[in-house]
Amino acid sequence: MTQTPAPRTVLFPGSFAPFTKGHASxxxxxxxxxxxxxxAIGFNAAKQSAANVEERIAEISAIYASEPRVSVMAYSxxxxxxxxxxxxxxxxxxxxTVADFEYERNLADLNRMISGIETVxxxxxxxxxxxxxxxxxxxxxxxxxxxxxxx
Length: 151
Known about the structure:
By secondary structure, the chain is α/β, with parallel strands linked by helices. It contains five helices and five strands; from the N terminus they run E-H-E-H-E-H-E-H-E-H. The chain is globular and about 60 Å long. The model has no long low-confidence stretch (mean pLDDT about 95).
């Protein structure tokens, strides 16, 4: 009897406040590399309300309602522990700038050292490089229409 191989699962961690077209682009590209993508919203009870996290889970889940290979969850604690809990052998990170790369490389090295979890880094598409959650929040707070930056 042949054994079915475990699905190649990648965990995509972040705050996703909000989930942007840049995030969606990374998920779409990761689906070409992995069997399953788990979008994992990092949660710190001291900093965020549970309702806010639940709203983000619902919003992102609605985007991927027709894609069974994408799931959305919240977690607290170390991201490598969330990877293990979800059966993810890889972590997905997006990089827009050299500064992002340096930060992510150091984090990837540390995560691999403590857990064996590998980090897959995808470079942001050039047309989405200026889109960040913090920029979208800032523009929205000043009354700008940010709908073109959101999926």
